[in-house]
C-alpha cells in the first residue's frame, strides 16, 4: 500500500474532485441517517452476482457496485481506476493495483465519521492511535514486557492468613478475578479524590497491580484489612467472619468511596432530585441489578410494583414447606426465589385500590440484571440461637441462563437479550458452623483454567472439581456484554 | 417462497434494522478480545516478510491469509454468531407474521 498518495488519484482529483467519494462514503460507509440507510439497503449488492459481499466496492467513475471479484474485473475492463471499499472506506487504485492512502481522502472520511452523530466501533477502531510523548516515555523507562500464554500464572497470588482472615482472602481472590473489575483497575480508571491512605478503591487498585505484576510470593493484606476495619467497624477483630458479610461490606465501602470520585456536586443534586438514579460508579455498573417486587391484591388483582437495587441474591436452602422437598440445584433455588408467595392472613397489605388491608401475594423478579451476579446460598441457619449449617448438595451449572427469572415485560421484548452467565468464582466453606471452619476459593483464570486458592497455596483445579464442590458464594459473569 | 426471495428478504431485514451492523460489531469485538486479530496481524506480517523484497498488495494478502484466518476463528465465537443470527432470524419470521 502506498503511504504517500498516488499520482493517478491526484490526477483524478484535479479533474473530478472528491464529491463522489464524499457522498458514497457518507451513505454506504458511515450510513447514519434514515435516508442513507434506505439508499444503502436498496443498492447494497454486487451488480454481477447480486450478493452483498464479500468486500463490496463501489466504482468512483460510474454507477457500479461489485464484490471483490467483480469490482476488480469491472475496473480493469473499463479502465475505471478507482473503487471504494464499502466496509471501511478505503480507496483502491487499479493502476497501482493496491489500496492507497491519501491525506485529502482521509480528511473527508474523518469528517463524515465525526458527523455521523453516533460513535460506531467499526469505523473508529481503525483510526490510528497517536502515541503521546508521555506514553513513549512510560514504555522507554519500563522496558520489561510480560507475555501472557495459557500456561502463565500471572494474576495468581497466594494470600497469607493473618489469623482467621481466610474470609477476606477468598473474597479478594474472587474480586481480583472479576474480568470487568480487573479491566477497570488495570486501565487505571480510578482517579482518587479522597485522602491518601484512606481510600479502599486505591487499595484495591494497588492490589491489582500486585496481582498482575508477575511476582509469585504470597501477599499479606494487612492494609486492606485495616481499611475495612476502620470503615466497617463490626468486622474488626480477629475472629472468623462470614465471607458473605465481608463481601457486602467491601462492596459498600468501595461504593461509597467511588461515589466521592464521581463528580461529588453533580451526584448530590441528582440524588436529591430522584432517589433512584443509578449511580455510575464502577461497583454499581458491575454489581447492581434491579429487583422488581410485585404485590398483587387478592381482592381486586391490583398490582403495586416497586424496584429495588440489589447486589446479591441470597437463596434459601431449607424445605419449601414443612416436609416439602428442599431445593437441589441453583435453578431450583432461583425458581423458589421468583415464585409468587402468599403473604398469608397475618400480613395483609394496604391496597391503594381497595383502600383497605387485603390478603396479597408477592413475587420477586429481576428487572435488570447486573453484569456480575453473585448468589449467596444460605447455608447457615439461626434457629433458637443455635447455629446450624445446611450441607445440602446444590448443583450449579457453568453456564446459567437468567432469562426465566426476568420480569415479564423484559421477556416480551421483541429482540430478546442474551442473559447467559458463566461461572468465574466459587467460594466454599469447610467446617460445621459460621464461627469456625475455613474458606477457600476457586477462581477462573484466562478462559478456562481453574485454580484453587487456599490462603497462600494455589493449586490448579479443573471444572469438574469446581462444579462438584459444595458452594457457598457463587460468582457469575455476564457472558455477552450488551450495548447500553 | 423461493430461496432467493427468502435470502433477499433476510438481507433486507438484516440491513434495515441495523441487525447486521450489530452482529458484525459483536463478532468484531469478540475477535479482538480473543486475540484473533493479533494472530491474523502476525500472519500478515509473516507473509510480508517472507515475500522477500516485493511487498505484496492487499489483494494478494487477502487471498493468501483469508483461508488461514477463517480457520483460526475460535469455535465459541462461531457458536455465538450462530446464536445471534438465529435470534435475529426468529424475529424476521415474527415480523412477517405480525404483518399478515
UniProtKB/TrEMBL annotation, chain A:
Keywords: Hydrolase, Metal-binding, Nucleus, Protease, Thiol protease, Transcription, Transcription regulation, Ubl conjugation pathway, Zinc, Zinc-finger. Transmembrane segments: none annotated. Coiled coil: none annotated. GO terms for cellular component: nucleus. GO terms for biological process: protein deubiquitination; proteolysis. Its EC number is 3.4.19.12. Pfam families: UCH (PF00443), zf-UBP (PF02148). It catalyses: Thiol-dependent hydrolysis of ester, thioester, amide, peptide and isopeptide bonds formed by the C-terminal Gly of ubiquitin (a 76-residue protein attached to proteins as an intracellular targeting signal). GO terms for molecular function: cysteine-type deubiquitinase activity; zinc ion binding. Residues 157-479 form the USP domain. InterPro entries: Papain-like_cys_pep_sf, Peptidase_C19_UCH, Ub_carboxyl-term_hydrolase, USP, USP_CS, Znf_RING/FYVE/PHD, Znf_UBP. Residues 4-119 form the UBP-type domain. It is found in: Nucleus. PANTHER family: UBIQUITIN CARBOXYL-TERMINAL HYDROLASE (PTHR21646), UBIQUITIN CARBOXYL-TERMINAL HYDROLASE 22 (PTHR21646:SF33). Belongs to the peptidase C19 family. UBP8 subfamily. This is Ubiquitin carboxyl-terminal hydrolase. It comes from Popillia japonica (Japanese beetle).
Automatic annotation (TrEMBL), chain B:
Transmembrane segments: none annotated. Keywords: Activator, Chromatin regulator, mRNA transport, Nucleus, Protein transport, Transcription, Transcription regulation, Translocation, Transport. GO terms for molecular function: transcription coactivator activity. The keyword Transport applies. It is found in: Nucleus, Nucleoplasm. InterPro entries: TF_ENY2 (IPR018783), TF_EnY2_sf (IPR038212). GO terms for cellular component: DUBm complex; nuclear pore; nucleoplasm; SAGA complex; transcription export complex 2. Its main location: nucleus. GO terms for biological process: chromatin organization; mRNA export from nucleus; protein transport; transcription elongation by RNA polymerase II. Involved in mRNA export coupled transcription activation by association with both the TREX-2 and the SAGA complexes. The transcription regulatory histone acetylation (HAT) complex SAGA is a multiprotein complex that activates transcription by remodeling chromatin and mediating histone acetylation and deubiquitination. Within the SAGA complex, participates to a subcomplex that specifically deubiquitinates histones. The SAGA complex is recruited to specific gene promoters by activators, where it is required for transcription. Component of the nuclear pore complex (NPC)-associated TREX-2 complex (transcription and export complex 2). Component of the SAGA transcription coactivator-HAT complex. Within the SAGA complex, participates to a subcomplex of SAGA called the DUB module (deubiquitination module). HAMAP family: ENY2_Sus1. Belongs to the ENY2 family. This is Enhancer of yellow 2 transcription factor. The gene is e(y)2.
